[in-house]
Design the sequence.
């Protein structure tokens, strides 16, 4: 009886020729699971939503600018794309800043053309007169950093006898793009700053629970550093989102409690977890690992509260842990301080969810 070729022991089965050639073309080693996971990677939903808003704003700005007969519709498209941020508050803030800077730069450029009718000025002189006050304004108020650019465009690109009309057209085009960007952020798959605040707060709580456990159980320094970096990045993201939320609140687009109190509490809790690490270095306790589970559980419960509405963490487990430590030790002090700030964090998280 004839048999097919015997596969040598330990040798992987070779894929069909067509599949193998495809694997070679994409630079993978069959069946490299890590490479296949990379090929299956999908961008986050927030990135897809932001992409959709940006594309919609660009297309709408172009159609409206062309329909309005504006001579350089691309300025409206550029503005709509530039002002589009990750949240509604960020987009509104960028739109207002860009519009104000454009108006200031256009006024400076137009003033130079009016001045040139009375005092002969070379192009270099007009540029100096226009850009000097705008550069000073940008240095004093960073949200006007685009004003010198607009002034430069008006002075150098405008026809000699149509400077005022050129400045007006640029303001109209850029203003249109800013307005369309803001409206698109409001009505096309809107992302409020609150979403970014809750997402990053959840990531902070997850990381702080792991960080506290690493401190108390003697985790590797590289892991502790990595967790600290992730916590700091998320805190910075919340600070940015909180300022964007304040813009939404000023425009009556957001109700409920502000995020600033929760951000302050998260920073204190971050410091409390760091104190646990210092306490273990100064006066290590042999039963410190027994506190790790209770503290990690509180952080995990707080993260679950934000992620899926689970109950807020009860702090009884930490109270029982405190009873097992001599009260005069640095670690007992650190755990007591953490327990106090976790109680306040519960109040802040409940406020955010109720708002």
Sequence:
């Amino acid at each position: 009886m004839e048999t097919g070729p015997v596969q040598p022991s330990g040798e992987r089965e070779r894929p069909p020729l067509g599949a193998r050639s495809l694997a070679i073309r994409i630079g993978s080693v069959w069946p490299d699971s890590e490479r296949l996971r990379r090929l299956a990677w999908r961008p986050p939903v927030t990135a897809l939503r932001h992409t959709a808003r940006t594309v919609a704003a660009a297309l709408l700005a172009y159609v409206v600018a062309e329909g309005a007969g504006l001579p350089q519709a691309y300025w409206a498209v550029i503005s709509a794309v530039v002002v589009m941020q990750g949240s509604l508050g960020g987009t509104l803030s960028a739109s207002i800043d860009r519009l104000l800077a454009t108006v200031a730069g256009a006024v400076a450029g137009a003033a130079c053309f009016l001045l040139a009718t009375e005092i002969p000025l070379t192009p270099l002189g007009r540029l100096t007169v226009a850009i000097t006050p705008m550069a000073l304004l940008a240095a004093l108020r960073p949200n006007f950093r685009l004003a010198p650019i607009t002034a430069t465009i008006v002075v150098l690109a405008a026809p000699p006898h149509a400077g005022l009309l050129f400045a007006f057209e640029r303001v109209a085009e850029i203003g249109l793009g800013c307005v369309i960007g803001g409206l698109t952020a409001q009505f096309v798959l809107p992302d409020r700053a609150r979403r970014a605040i809750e997402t990053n707060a959840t990531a902070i709580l997850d990381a702080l629970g792991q960080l506290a456990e690493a401190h108390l159980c003697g985790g590797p320094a590289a892991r502790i550093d990595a967790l600290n970096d992730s916590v700091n990045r998320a805190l910075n993201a919340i600070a940015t989102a909180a300022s964007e939320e304040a813009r939404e609140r000023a425009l009556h687009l957001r109700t409920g409690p502000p995020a600033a109190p929760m951000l302050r509490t998260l920073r204190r809790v971050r410091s409390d977890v760091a104190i646990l690490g210092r306490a273990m270095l100064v006066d290590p306790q042999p039963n410190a690992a027994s506190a790790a589970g209770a503290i990690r559980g509180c952080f995990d419960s707080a993260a679950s509260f934000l992620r899926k509405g689970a109950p807020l963490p009860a702090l009884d487990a930490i109270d029982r842990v405190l009873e097992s430590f001599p009260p005069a030790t640095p670690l007992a002090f650190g755990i007591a301080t953490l327990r106090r700030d976790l109680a306040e964090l519960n109040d802040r998280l409940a406020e955010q969810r109720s708002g």
In short: Residues 315 and 343 are 8 Å apart (CA to CA).
